[in-house]
Structure formats: structure tokens, C-alpha cells
Amino acid sequence: MSLMLLDTASLYFRAFFGVPDSLRAPSGMPVNAVRGLLDTIAWLATTHGPDRMVACWDDDWRPAFRVEAIPSYKAHRVAQEVPGTTGIEEVPEALRVQVPVIADLLAALGIARVGVPGYEADDVIGTLTTLAVEQRTGPVDIVTGDRDLFQLVDDAAGVRVLYPARGIRDPDVVNEKRLAERYGVASGQAYADMATLRGDPSDGLPGVPGVGEKTAAKLLAQYGTLAEILAARDTGDKGLTTTQRRRLQEADAYLRVAPVVVQVARDVPLPAFDPAVPTAPADPEALEALTEQWGLRSSVGRVRTAFGWA
């Protein structure tokens, strides 16, 4: 019973910037992100034929628990500060207006859309992946343009990432072999540890100054885990240079909290939902109305064909 998990925002952002904005509804509103996502779903269903598919959703793009740990987390993407929240995300207006249309279409099609208040889609994906591994209901394909989710790769459990670096039709298939070839780490957990050490400016994570990807991978090959690297630092292990030990010590405050930010949650309280790929539209009348309103006949038709409805 194969499971495909979509990092929905990652995919519709990619569609928005990759599909011409000349694609418009009869009203004149851009629908490039909508059409791009529908075409992506159709291609994935046709090519991979998953039994189950879940559109994982960012109910909270910048969760408070991550901001409390590292205040700079995604701070550069805050468009507007709102008291009592972690801020409103900067999103192009032409994309923002398409997101509700995407949600409506997923509902009408019958594709499960799952988000949880206080968590990102990454956390939903982490939880669903963990459940699939524990219950042996894989394999699992995670479709995302976000390298953070490489931490979930697990060959033994049948978990891999389809990373559309060259486009959704020719993705990098990220498994443990690919992690070793590209990043010099042996597992998904090692990737998370490397990402913690390296940092990620696009997410506002500083990392350990002076420790880049190659040095982080080398330290992990030497010691195995971030915890063992820090133990070596604290015991004065001779395998660390004086400079490395000093840099790790100076970054101690960051390293104590960074794993909470970098690692996806695996125990999110999920709502009830049906992940099965739909055998018919959940709401045929709504789907027809949305198709007509937004000028989506060809894209919706491709999804219908991919799901075997046409």
C-alpha cells in the first residue's frame, strides 16, 4: 500500500515561479500555481501509481516552538508582525489568492489535505512517515523541493524523497546512496545532524561558524552523530582540532536548541482522514463549478485520467 506525501506549499510555490503567469482564469486572475500543482499531481499519480496520497499542509508556517528556540527562524520572511503570532509570511499576492482555490480543489477531488495547528507540513510528513514505518504500511515517497525532509530517508523502511531539482518529471530520487554521494552522510538522521552543524541561511539558522557541509560530514563520519561530536568536544578528544573544538564550544547555545528546529516532529496529533487515492470525485458538482470558474478543464481532466475516472 504505497503512500505518497506531498509537501504542498513547496510544490505550489515551485509551480507559481515555474509556470507562466499568463495562465489565467476567465476573470483574469492568475491560476499558474493551481494548474501547475494539478498537473504535478496528475504526473505523480500516472508515473508512480500510489495507493494513498496526502497533500500535507502548513497550518503554521513558522511554529512558535521553533521561534522560541531560535528567534531568527524564518524571521526574514515575515511580511507583517502580528501580536500574539509569529507573523504573516511574505507571499506574492498573485500566489496568495490562489491558495484557497487549491484547497477547494483538493476537497472536491477527494485528495486528503492534512494540516495541524501549530505545525508545518514537514511535521505532518514526519509523523505520517513514522506511522507508516511503525505500522509497515509503506513504501513512502515524499515529494518536496525542501531538502530539510532528506532527514526522513530510510532505505530499510522504504522511505525516499522525490526532489524536483530539474523539474517534477525528472526528480532526484534521494535515498541513502544519494545522500552518501551528494552530502557524504550515511543516513537521514546523519543528514539532520549535518544540517544542524551547517545551518541554513534560507531558514535563518546560523549553524556553527566555520563548519560547512564538508566539515560537518567529515565530523559525522568520524564520530557518528552530533551527540557524539559534542561528547568528543567536552572530553577533549584528540580527533578534534583546537579550532574545531573552539567553534563548537562557541556555538554551544545554538547547538543545544537547534535540533528542535531542524528535526521534524514525528508525533503530531493528526486529525482523522482517508488517505486513499479517490476512485471518484468527493464532490462532483463542486469540482465542475471550480473547473468552470477557474478555467481548469485541461488540468482537471489530466487528474481525472490519472486517477482512472475518465
From TrEMBL:
Domain of life of the source: Bacteria
Transmembrane spans: none
GO molecular function: exonuclease activity
Signal peptide: none
Pfam families for this protein: 5_3_exonuc, 5_3_exonuc_N
Gene3D superfamilies in the cross-refs: 5' to 3' exonuclease, C-terminal subdomain (1.10.150.20), 5'-nuclease (3.40.50.1010)
Keywords in alphabetical order: DNA-binding, Exonuclease, Hydrolase, Nuclease
Keyword DNA-binding (UniProt): yes
InterPro entries (UniProt xref): 5-3_exonucl_a-hlix_arch_N, 5-3_exonuclease, 5-3_exonuclease_C_sf, DNA_polI_H3TH, FEN, HhH2, PIN-like_dom_sf
Boundaries of every 5'-3' exonuclease domain copy: 1-279
Function: 5'-3' exonuclease acting preferentially on double-stranded DNA.
UniProt name for this protein: 5'-3' exonuclease
Naturally occurring in which organism (per UniProt): Promicromonospora umidemergens
